[in-house]
Amino acid sequence: MLVSAKEMLDKAKAGHYAVGQFNINNLEWTKSILQTAQELSSPVILGVSEGAGKYMGGYKTIVGMVNGMLEELNITVPVALHLDHGGYDACYKCIEAGFSSIMFDGSHYPIEENVEKTKELVAAAHEKGLSIEAEVGSIGGEEDGVIGMGECADPKECKMVADLGVDFLAAGIGNIHGKYPANWQGLSFETLDAIQQLTGDLPLVLHGGTGIPADMIKKAISLGVSKINVNTECQLAFAAATREYIEAGKDQQGKGYDPRKLLAPGAQAIKDTVKEKMEMFGSIGKA
Ligand SMILES: [Zn+2]
């Protein structure tokens, strides 16, 4: 059964480790992540962006697939199904569809409107037992064709949004989505520390976990980061393994074209990536 992400993240914050949010794109992704979490006895959060939701045939389709796997694959570790960077309407759709956690990304609204909508969604999510994440400031990336260097959130604004009753909070500390540029300045631990001073026990979320060096990840965890989002890294690992299979001509040998064979190296690459991240985040054995 899916669970809210609140308890697993409160435990992570208290225990000084982080739980990975791994974004899913299809059945292979989902199965690889769930099986790895079970094998390593780690809690896990499956992230679904609005785009991935559409791609996979809608939120209800995803809820059906994930719930089916939890039962048929005997997954007993805590699993949360979380809407990633959801708009206002998508949040309600996911609450209805049976997700166990949502993120409301109101970062593009003026702060007053972001606050109003966040308050309303906190009440709606909590009424149905879901956890909710909010974002302060905006986390850059190359999505708009421009690579942002990563803004830093205002700690006072973080405290204000934290007080609205969200269960965990994403704040920009120089992190960005996608691959990091060569001249990236690194994470701002000063900002992170200032945010944690004001928000106390609230678990903090680090978006854009791909390519942040291990020592920075560990330091961020020591300063209150309890959830780390990983998306691009699994995509790169999947693509590289699939490329290798095709370039070796294996799809043309025997029944190598069978999708169960063709997609197997990519699925294994996702498992390896998830394992590596869980080791780095310290969540193994914490289920
Ligand atoms: Zn993000």
Secondary structure tally, helices: 12
Low-confidence stretches: none
Mean pLDDT: 94
Indicate the overall shape: globular
First-to-last CA distance: 14 Å
Which molecules other than protein and nucleic acid are bound?
A: zinc ion
Helical content band: 40-55%
Number of strands: 10
CATH superfamily assignment?
Answer: Aldolase class I
Taking the sheet with the most strands, its summary is: 8 strands, parallel, barrel
CATH topology: TIM Barrel
- What is the C-alpha radius of gyration, as a whole number of Å? 18 Å
CATH architecture descriptor: Alpha-Beta Barrel
Q: H/E element string? A: HEHEHHEHEHEEHEEHEHEHHH
- Structural category is alpha/beta
**Strand order, sheet with most strands:** 1-2-3-4-5-7-9-10
> What is the CATH class?
Alpha Beta
Number of domain units: 1
Indicate the proportion of strand residues: 15-25%
EC number: 4.1.2.13
GO molecular function: fructose-bisphosphate aldolase activity; zinc ion binding
Protein name: Class II fructose-1,6-bisphosphate aldolase
Keywords: Lyase, Metal-binding, Zinc
Describe the SSE topology:
Elements: H1 6-15, E1 19-23, H2 27-39, E2 44-49, H3 50-55, H4 59-72, E3 79-86, H5 88-97, E4 101-104, H6 111-127, E5 131-136, E6 140-141, H7 155-162, E7 168-171, E8 176-177, H8 189-199, E9 204-206, H9 214-222, E10 225-230, H10 232-247, H11 259-262, H12 264-281
Parallel strand pairs: 1-2, 1-10, 2-3, 3-4, 4-5, 5-7, 6-8, 7-9, 9-10
